[in-house]
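ok, trying the design again with the full structure, not the truncated one.
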C-alpha cells in the first residue's frame, strides 16, 4: 500500500517539477519527434509583454497619474523658482554695465515680476494642455511592452522566479502530496477488488 503511495508521490512531484521548468525551458524551440517544444514564457513572450503593458497602463499607472505628479504644488513651485532664478541672472547679465546699479535692480525686479505672473498662468493653462497633448503620443503600455521584450529571457526567468519561487516550489510539493494520496487511494481500490 505504501509502495503505491510513494510511486504516486514521485510521479506527482516529477510531473509538477517538469511543468514548472517548462514554463521557462527550453528557451529556444526544440524538435522532438517532429513536434516543436518551447517553454511557455519564451514562446509567448510578446503576448505576455503586451498584456503586462496594458495592465500597467490600465490598472497601475496612467498618464493622468503622471501628469498629476508632474504638476503638483511642490513641482510647480520648483519650476517657477527655477524659471525666476534663470530670468533674474540672465537679465542682470545682459543689462549693459554703464546702467546704474539701482536702475538695474528695478529692471530685473520688473522683468522677474512679469515672468512670475506669466509662469503661473502658463503652468495653469498651457502646461497642462501641452502635457495632455503629449500624453496622447506617449503610451505607457508600449513602453512597458518594449522594455519586457528587450529583457534577455534568462533575466526575465530570474525576475519571475524571484517573485514566485515559493509558490512554484509549493506547486511541486503539492504534486507529490496529491500523488501520494492518489497512490494510497489506488491501493485501497486494488485491495477491495
Amino acid at each position: 500500500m505504501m509502495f503505491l503511495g510513494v510511486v504516486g508521490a514521485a510521479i506527482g512531484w516529477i510531473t509538477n517539477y517538469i511543468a514548472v521548468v517548462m514554463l521557462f525551458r527550453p528557451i529556444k524551440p526544440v524538435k522532438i519527434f517532429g513536434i516543436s517544444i518551447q517553454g511557455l514564457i519564451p514562446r509567448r513572450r510578446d503576448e505576455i509583454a503586451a498584456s503586462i503593458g496594458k495592465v500597467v497602463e490600465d490598472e497601475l499607472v496612467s498618464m493622468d497619474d503622471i501628469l498629476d505628479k508632474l504638476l503638483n504644488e511642490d513641482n510647480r513651485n520648483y519650476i517657477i523658482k527655477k524659471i525666476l532664478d534663470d530670468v533674474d541672472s540672465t537679465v542682470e547679465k545682459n543689462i549693459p554695465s554703464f546702467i546704474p546699479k539701482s536702475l538695474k535692480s528695478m529692471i530685473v525686479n520688473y522683468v522677474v515680476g512679469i515672468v512670475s505672473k506669466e509662469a503661473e498662468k502658463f503652468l495653469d493653462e498651457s502646461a497642462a494642455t501641452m502635457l495632455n497633448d503629449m500624453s496622447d503620443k506617449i503610451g505607457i503600455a508600449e513602453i512597458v511592452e518594449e522594455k519586457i521584450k528587450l529583457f534577455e529571457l534568462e533575466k526575465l526567468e530570474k525576475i519571475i522566479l524571484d517573485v514566485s519561487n515559493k509558490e512554484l516550489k509549493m506547486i511541486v510539493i503539492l504534486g507529490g502530496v496529491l500523488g501520494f494520496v492518489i497512490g494510497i487511494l489506488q491501493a485501497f481500490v486494488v485491495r477491495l477488488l
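Keeping the full-length input from now on. The longest strand covers residues 30-32.
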